[in-house]
Amino acid sequence: MAAVHNPPSAPILISFPDPDALVDSLASFIVKAQKDSVDKKGRFTIALSGGSLPKMLRGLINNPAVKWNKWQVYYVDERVVPLDHPDSNHRACTEHLFSKVPIPSENIHPLDPSLLNDLEDLSDSYEKELIREFAQKDSARFPVFDLILLGMGPDGHTASLFPGHELLSEEDRWVAYVDDSPKPPPKRITFTYPVINHAARVAFVAAGKEKADTLKSILDDPEAGLPSARVRPVFPGQLYWFVDDAAAEKVVYPRTPFKL
Ligand SMILES: O=C(O)[C@H](O)[C@@H](O)[C@H](O)[C@H](O)COP(=O)(O)O
Questions:
Q1: Which of 14, 17, 103, 156 has its CA 20 to 30 A from that of 241?
Q2: Where is the Glucosamine/galactosamine-6-phosphate isomerase domain (predicted)?
Q3: Residue 258 lies in a domain
Q4: How far is the CA of 49 from the centre of ligand 1 (A)?
């Protein structure tokens, strides 16, 4: 009998009056994803982006529902700089979140700082870090993160997947590198689409009117093919957009009220 392939579910767009309102609901959403995962398998695998995202996770600080010792944290993409460099996503997440909560340091998976001079080795070693978490358990072709949190750049990029880049068609590797990122710094490692699109839940977080045109293209004209529009988790994965009204101002795509 031929396999039945369910199409990806439609994205769920949730818009908040301002970023502060978004922060609290985002925290509740993450805690719910954590609870579902921990109830099912005793751990919670999450991948974080850089940019403005780390600051938007402040609703998790002093939140008694977060089981920090169950979290395994990876980076969706990382700039190839020392871990304490101002450009480092790991540094941003540490400053805005990890330094303020009781997460065991061994539950956080930054890139290997001894490999910064060799992009190939660096991305291979990060892929092995994912294989240690995921592949041995169920020999998965691709890892299934419980939650991946993404940002969207004004050009429509997400992770370090930029418009027109050859990595947009990568189908095999889990982690790849770029040395020509148009957003500085130029050297980065990044999850590929197969990893992002196999997650159980993927949530974009985007705020501000400078994102309004791009968000409209992504949600109202996905066929235009901007990198963020290519995030379509395979069934039964679900895609969410947590945005503010300024970012959503031009979007016609229907909003869904926030509920857990
Ligand atoms: O390290 C990075 O540069 C990112 O992970 C990147 O993909 C980011 O999420 C977007 O550029 C959005 O950034 P903002 O949220 O700052 O607009």
A1: 103
A2: 17-241
A3: no
A4: 7
